[in-house]
Automatic annotation (TrEMBL):
Origin species: Capsicum annuum (Capsicum pepper)
PANTHER family with a match to the protein in the record: DIPHTHINE--AMMONIA LIGASE, DOMAIN OF UNKNOWN FUNCTION 71 DUF71 -CONTAINING PROTEIN
GO biological process: protein histidyl modification to diphthamide
InterPro entries: Diphthami_syn_dom, DPH6/MJ0570, Rossmann-like_a/b/a_fold, RutC-like_sf, YjgF/YER057c/UK114
UniProt xrefs under Gene3D superfamilies: HUPs, putative n-type atp pyrophosphatase, domain 2, RutC-like
GO MF: diphthine-ammonia ligase activity
Limits of the Diphthamide synthase domain: 56-166
Protein name stated in the entry: Diphthine--ammonia ligase
Enzyme Commission number: 6.3.1.14
Catalytic activity: diphthine-[translation elongation factor 2] + NH4(+) + ATP = diphthamide-[translation elongation factor 2] + AMP + diphosphate + H(+)
């Protein structure tokens, strides 16, 4: 518990912590619990939304208090806050928790406020308004009233002015005079005064200041004593108050910042460390891996250190750093080493290095060693401008899975929302949901939807591409069910979203299913959607359509309607396009039949593919993709040969055999 050393009502609204309890002995008795208190000496010094350690800031008082709690009660592992929609508050609690190795709990985060208000009415039997500061609320009329009395009026104000009915940053604060943690008694106000903090004509601010009260003993206890019996601090009299004094001690901080390149690494030549780099305007991508790493390093950690160090060097050479990275694909050869990968990764990509927010990430296992790509293969997408917007929620809540680590839920840049890979985790428990791959898929889609809504978009209307990674452990019959379920689930989400929404255009996304050896947490499904959040442009003009219709063929191919059988595409004219060409054995034969190339009988009977046939099929794919680009006012200059907004990727079966 924190309160100012010199308590002035007219300064109450200017502080981060908003509400203080001067009668801490009474609070300790009510809760039948141990309380730690400290005086607030810091002020608001760090003004950015994201917080970094700032001496003299009020957040450091919270660090001092929680640091002492952790020292005296080592079994404490988490901190709960009441943030509903305030990124400012949540980010500061998360910053302190991260420094102390604690978990941030924010189970009110993004909850429906009408539902929360009803819960307060149902369970806080005699809660009264403590402060009012919103349009339509008058201190003389509404202070000191029970929430049940105010509820209809609050909903009316919501309809009239769009206010949030119980969120703290809109300054409607409620103190629970009887709360369920109060085991012994409840407080009854005998006398109070209303202090007018601001006489604003639209939204006057008033505070209820208790002058006299008494305790009313409760008939029976609702909860048992929740004190940690193993802690020495809680033995004996449980109605204990500890005052935390002194300066902030940064005991929870890391002793020193990791310096890339400082640890011993294997000797690697330029020929062994491979890099692929492409660029379009101010956006570029880098792929890096250690060729045949078995000869040069002993484990995944060494591979990752080499690759991450090289990428960091390349970023600097291009006038960038980790703070410019939008997205990272992390491919590893063995998911059993996922924890090692994270430990190494977080030493390079830190909050301190990423002032705009850490990039989003997707991690899957691939058979890298079998094809000589080392134990770790990393792709990064970089933008040489500071316009990215990052959503990074580290608190555990009911909203969406937390990202307690070095990556964010989503990154927005140039109207493209890159979302981290989503597993079928129950957000409140961070445990994979039960029910198999279909249940995990549904939960992963719901998690994706929750994150998308934070950017005013929806997986049902704004998705342009959805990669669905499926674990090889899924039975073949279940893979088909997963694909069908994804389709039906998306259709249902579109129907639900259509009710009451006015959206001029609904995108029909491309779904790509990729079978992988393993996923994090032994998940069966991982969903990685990409969204377009910008404005929708009009389609091609009549002149453009006429030009497109007279387009010349290529390599002897002329457009026929059956060409569309193998094509999936989703495009926003002139802005972005995703397209997938799937060539089956039957289609390959039809494509090759258009030319004079014939497949020898001995090759055909063995299921092999002639090299010349592969060239023909590749040319057909390029021809068809060229037509897609032309139809959407795009060109090959807009395509990057790596993952990106526009990318060219090749997938082929692992049993494809080519004979020359």
């Amino acid at each position: 518990m924190m309160f100012p050393k010199y308590f002035y009502l007219n300064n109450l609204c200017k502080m981060l912590y908003l509400c203080y309890n001067r009668d801490v002995e009474v609070a300790s008795y009510l809760q039948h619990n141990v309380l730690f208190i400290t005086f607030l000496v810091g002020i608001h010094r760090h003004h950015d939304l994201s917080y970094s350690m700032t001496p003299g800031d009020e957040v450091e008082d919270m660090f001092k208090l929680l640091n002492e709690v952790k020292r005296q009660i080592p079994s404490v592992t988490a901190v709960s806050s009441g943030a509903i929609a305030s990124d400012y508050q949540r980010l500061r609690v998360e910053s302190v928790c991260s420094r102390l190795g604690l978990v941030s709990l924010a189970y009110l985060w993004k909850q429906d406020q009408s539902f929360l208000l009803q819960e307060m009415v149902n369970f806080c039997y005699t809660s009264e308004s403590f402060q009012v500061a919103a349009i339509g609320l008058n201190p003389s009329k509404h202070l000191g009233k029970e929430i049940a009395y105010l509820e209809p009026h609050l909903h009316e104000l919501k309809e009239l002015y769009g206010i949030n009915v119980c969120v703290t940053f809109l300054f409607f604060l409620i103190t629970r005079i009887m709360f369920q943690l109060s085991q012994n008694a409840r407080i009854v106000l005998d006398k109070f005064q209303i202090v007018l903090h601001s006489s604003d004509s639209i939204a006057p601010v008033g505070i209820l200041h208790p002058l006299a009260f008494h305790l009313e003993t409760k008939v029976e206890s609702i909860y048992s004593n929740g004190i940690d019996e193993d802690s020495n601090v809680c033995q004996g009299n449980v109605d204990t108050v500890f005052e935390v004094q002194g300066d902030v001690q940064q005991e929870g901080e890391a002793a020193s910042e990791f310096v890339a390149g400082s640890s011993k690494r294997p000797s690697v030549t330029k020929q062994e460390l491979k890099v692929s780099k492409t660029m379009k305007d101010n956006v570029f991508s880098i792929s890096c891996w250690l060729q045949d790493s078995c000869k040069n390093s002993s484990d995944l950690q060494e591979d990752l250190e080499v690759v991450l160090t090289k990428i960091e060097t390349l970023l600097v050479e291009n006038g960038s750093s980790w703070e410019n990275v939008l997205y990272i694909h992390l491919y590893i050869a063995d998911m059993d080493e996922f924890a090692v990968a994270n430990e190494t990764y977080v030493r390079y990509i830190t909050q301190k290095k990423c002032r705009y927010g850490v990039p989003s990430r997707s991690t899957i296992e691939l058979p890298l060693l079998q094809v000589g790509l080392g134990r770790a293969y990393i792709e990064v997408l970089v933008a040489n401008d500071p316009t990215k917007k990052v959503l990074h929620v580290q608190s555990i809540s009911c909203w969406a899975p937390s990202c307690i680590g070095p990556y964010s839920q989503a990154t927005l840049h140039n109207d493209i929302l890159h979302m981290a890979g989503q597993l079928g985790l129950d957000p409140a428990t961070m445990v994979l949901c039960k029910g198999g791959p279909v249940a995990e898929l549904e939960q992963a889609l719901e998690n994706s939807e929750a994150v998308a809504r934070s950017f005013n978009c929806s997986i049902s209307t704004s998705t342009i591409l959805c990669l669905i990674y499926c674990s090889e452990s899924i039975e073949k019959s279940e893979r088909i069910i997963v694909q069908k379920k994804a389709d039906t689930h998306l259709k249902q989400m579109k129907l639900d979203h259509a009710e009451g929404h006015k959206k001029t255009m609904v995108l029909d996304p491309v779904f790509l299913y990729v079978l992988v050896p393993d996923l994090p947490k032994r998940a069966l499904v991982e969903v990685k959607p990409m969204f377009y959040t910008g404005e929708y442009l009009s389609g091609p003009s009549d002149l453009d359509k006429q030009y497109q219709s007279t387009g010349q063929g290529c390599w002897g191919f002329e457009y026929e309607t059956w060409h569309d059988i193998c094509l999936q595409k989703c495009a926003v004219y002139g802005k972005i396009c995703t397209a997938i060409l799937s060539v089956t054995e039957e289609l390959a034969a039809k494509i090759c039949s258009l030319t004079s190339v014939a497949c020898p009988d001995d090759v055909k009977s063995k299921g092999l593919v002639d090299e010349e046939q592969v060239i023909i099929i590749a040319r057909f794919c390029i021809y068809r993709l060229d037509k897609v680009l032309l139809e959407n006012n795009l060109s090959w200059a807009d395509v990057m040969v790596s993952f990106s907004t526009l990318a060219l990727l090749f997938y082929f079966t692992n049993f494809l055999e080519v004979v020359s």
